[in-house]
């Protein structure tokens, strides 16, 4: 074969140079590419984004939820300042985190705060940012009631009620956002996305309220979580009952815009406690400890 | 110019073959002489059709990637990364070529050939089996349906009209099994054993009408008509061996070597002619229909092809790869015989995920000619191209839509013995595909 003869001639003449000619473009390319540092070390190198979609999407969505929640927390603190009592804040955080650890998302970092407000209420922003008002704290009589209220808010976060209601997702899941990022507009597009999401969450928390079924679900999960944490499971219903009777239901009216009627909630909780045998020992109300911290 | 031959009293007599010499091997020598533009289809380039979809969109820079069924063709060692059943099929929705020879019959009178065809470009399947991965693929590496219908009037002294009608169809396809195994954490090897088929048929009608007063029945016009049917079928085997080295997780280096061995060929040439008073009487007797048939089974040689590639998997979102390929020189016995030159080509490709469900791919590549730069007989046009696609993913499947475009300019010789012309060539491919992973 003639090409074989040609090959033999070539390789016989300058084998080293021929080999180098073949390999040199490859080595040059390798040297060019080497400085590009790896970004995601946790995935197999060849895994493409669509192949790791489930894991990646869940992580990205949670990051988006936390980012939105942080922004919402900032908006809440712009409306109501934190009560200037570090010991109280620490106490509420300890109770809240104990409850959250027994919830459905124990890996999520929760942050709790007492805000200065005359309204009896509590707020749960996405991502684990939870606030209870000083007026609500004043209405409570023991730690089990505080744990019950916080567990109710933790349940909102655990069940992703706001996230689902507003369809908060990582912007990278959107093709248009990806295209924008590709052409260099990532920061601006992301900012617009988060800003809009935060506005809607604030509206939901302070004006529109969640779906009735979401509130009922938070009641159920909250009561169970408080019981799992070791608190008297009736703490939340006692607080709710007292709230509904307070001063001709003034405080209840404040809640009525954003929550279902207290009577219906109390009845459902009563049935739950009875059916699931959640009535706990009275000594787990920790009234004395609560009294030490209440302002 | 070629026309001067027709104008001259010598006609084509100076290149007419001896009748007695039309035995085995004579077709090749005869073909180049009898009609204008003897070299049909595109035997001068190796990258006319980019195989696969992801690979095609990345300009064919796939030797070090090759981790899906397209890898069966580019580098079978890469399919070791297929850890589950994967089906992939692509359809080149449209593959077209457009070649223009400038000013063949005077300024503004270009010689234009166009091809447009639908190609089932690639189908492949990979499946883990035993200690390695098994695959099977069908690949169309070249497909041309070339057409030329042109009439040139008042071209040169004594020439009233030149009419050419050409239809040329060529398919080159391969199918066969592959297998890859992993030698250790860094090295894997693989091989594909393709059956190679080539099917070409070309029909050319050429009519030359001379001015009044040039024929024997003066003042009547005189004409020459030539008809040629050329058919070449061949089959053989094309083994491909590949190796892949992944010394660092994100860097992959690959190489593959292949060569087509033609085991059987069938070549047919039918030539018919009515000669004019100016024609070469041996080749084309005046006023009589002369029909000649030639057959032989001479097999063509093919070049050795070496591909070297490097890929960097920077992240799940972005990767980049590059290939260089080398085709060796050899002697092609077909179409008059010619010394085919060695060719180096390059390709660079990248892939970027916009999101979990959308990805963009792009590439640049060369498609250089295997002919001498100093045009003696065959076109010399180096093509350079770009490619791109967008892919949509679901959990187990993907759908791709992309295109490739290549452009080049150089020189070619349409009429035997004439001066070379400036040539521009364009290739456009629109492709789509889907793949499914079980």
TrEMBL record, chain B:
<keyword id="KW-0472">Membrane</keyword>
<comment type="similarity">
    <text>Belongs to the OmpP1/FadL family.</text>
</comment>
<protein>
    <submittedName>
        <fullName>Outer membrane protein transport protein</fullName>
    </submittedName>
</protein>
<dbReference type="GO" id="GO:0015483">
    <property type="term" value="F:long-chain fatty acid transporting porin activity"/>
</dbReference>
<keyword id="KW-0812">Transmembrane</keyword>
<keyword id="KW-1133">Transmembrane helix</keyword>
<keyword id="KW-0732">Signal</keyword>
<dbReference type="InterPro" id="IPR005017">
    <property type="entry name" value="OMPP1/FadL/TodX"/>
</dbReference>
<dbReference type="GO" id="GO:0009279">
    <property type="term" value="C:cell outer membrane"/>
</dbReference>
<keyword id="KW-0998">Cell outer membrane</keyword>
<feature type="transmembrane region" description="Helical">
    <location>
        <begin position="21"/>
        <end position="41"/>
    </location>
</feature>
<keyword id="KW-1134">Transmembrane beta strand</keyword>
<dbReference type="Pfam" id="PF03349">
    <property type="entry name" value="Toluene_X"/>
</dbReference>
């Amino acid at each position: 074969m003639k090409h074989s003869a040609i090959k033999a001639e070539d390789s016989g003449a300058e084998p080293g140079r021929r080999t180098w000619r073949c390999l040199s473009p490859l080595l040059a390319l390798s040297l060019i590419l080497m400085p590009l540092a790896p970004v995601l070390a946790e995935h197999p190198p060849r895994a493409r984004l669509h192949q790791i979609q489930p894991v990646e999407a869940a992580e990205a969505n949670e990051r988006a939820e936390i980012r939105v929640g942080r922004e919402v927390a900032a908006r809440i603190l712009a409306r109501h300042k934190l009560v200037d009592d570090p010991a109280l804040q620490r106490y509420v955080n300890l109770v809240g985190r104990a409850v959250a650890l027994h919830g459905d998302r124990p890996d999520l970092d929760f942050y709790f705060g007492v805000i200065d407000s005359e309204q009896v209420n509590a707020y749960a922003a996405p991502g684990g940012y939870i606030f209870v008002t000083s007026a609500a704290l004043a209405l409570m009589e023991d730690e089990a009631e505080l744990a019950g209220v916080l567990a109710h808010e933790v349940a909102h976060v655990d069940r992703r009620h706001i996230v689902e209601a507003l369809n908060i997702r990582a912007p990278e899941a959107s093709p248009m956002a990806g295209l924008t990022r590709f052409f260099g507009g990532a920061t601006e597009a992301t900012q617009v996305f988060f800003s809009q999401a935060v506005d809607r969450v604030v509206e939901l928390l302070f004006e529109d309220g969640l779906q009735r079924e979401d509130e009922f679900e938070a009641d159920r999960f909250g009561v169970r979580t408080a019981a799992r944490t070791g608190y008297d499971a009736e703490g939340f219903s006692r607080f709710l009952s007292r709230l509904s009777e307070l001063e001709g239901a003034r405080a209840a009216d404040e809640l009525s815009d954003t929550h279902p009627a207290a009577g219906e909630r109390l009845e459902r909780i009563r049935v739950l406690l009875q059916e699931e045998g959640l009535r706990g020992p009275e000594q787990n109300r920790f009234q004395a400890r609560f009294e030490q911290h209440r302002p | 110019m070629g026309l001067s031959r027709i104008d001259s009293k010598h006609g084509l007599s100076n290149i007419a073959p001896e009748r007695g010499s039309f035995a085995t091997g004579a077709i090749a020598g005869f073909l180049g002489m009898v009609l204008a533009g003897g070299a049909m289809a595109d035997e001068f380039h190796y990258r006319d059709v980019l195989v696969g979809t992801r690979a095609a969109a990345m300009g064919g820079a796939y030797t070090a990637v090759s981790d899906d069924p397209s890898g069966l063709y580019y580098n079978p060692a890469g399919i070791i990364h297929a850890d589950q059943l994967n089906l992939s099929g692509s359809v080149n929705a449209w593959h077209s070529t457009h070649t223009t020879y400038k000013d063949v019959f005077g300024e503004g009178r270009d010689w234009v050939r166009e091809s447009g065809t639908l190609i089932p470009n690639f189908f492949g399947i990979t499946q883990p089996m035993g200690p390695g991965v098994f695959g099977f693929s069908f690949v169309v590496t070249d497909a041309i349906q070339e057409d030329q219908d042109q009439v040139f009037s008042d071209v040169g002294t004594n020439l009233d009209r030149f009419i050419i009608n050409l239809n040329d169809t060529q398919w080159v396809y391969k199918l066969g099994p592959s297998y890859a195994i992993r030698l250790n954490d860094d090295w894997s090897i693989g091989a594909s054993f393709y059956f190679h088929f080539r099917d070409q048929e070309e029909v050319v009608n050429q009519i030359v009408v001379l001015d009044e007063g040039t024929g024997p029945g003066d003042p009547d016009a005189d004409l020459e008509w030539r008809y040629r049917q050329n058919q070449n079928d061949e089959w053989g085997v094309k083994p491909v061996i590949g190796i892949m080295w992944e010394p660092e997780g994100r860097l992959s280096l690959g190489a593959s070597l292949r060569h087509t061995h033609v085991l059987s060929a069938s070549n047919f040439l039918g030539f018919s002619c009515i000669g004019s008073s100016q024609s070469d009487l041996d080749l084309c007797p005046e006023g009589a229909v002369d029909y000649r048939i030639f057959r032989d089974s001479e097999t063509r040689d093919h070049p050795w092809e070496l591909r070297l590639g490097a890929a960097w998997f920077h992240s799940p979102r972005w990767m980049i790869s590059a290939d260089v390929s080398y085709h060796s020189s050899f002697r092609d016995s077909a179409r008059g015989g010619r010394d085919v030159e060695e060719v180096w080509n390059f390709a660079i490709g990248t892939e970027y995920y916009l999101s979990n469900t959308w990805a963009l791919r792009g590439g640049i590549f060369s498609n250089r000619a295997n002919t001498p730069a100093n045009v003696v007989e065959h076109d010399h046009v180096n093509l350079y191209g770009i490619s791109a696609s967008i892919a949509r993913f679901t959990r187990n499947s993907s759908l791709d839509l992309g295109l490739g475009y290549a452009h080049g300019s150089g020189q070619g010789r349409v009429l035997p013995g004439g001066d070379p012309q400036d040539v521009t060539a364009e290739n456009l491919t629109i492709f789509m595909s889907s793949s499914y992973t079980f």
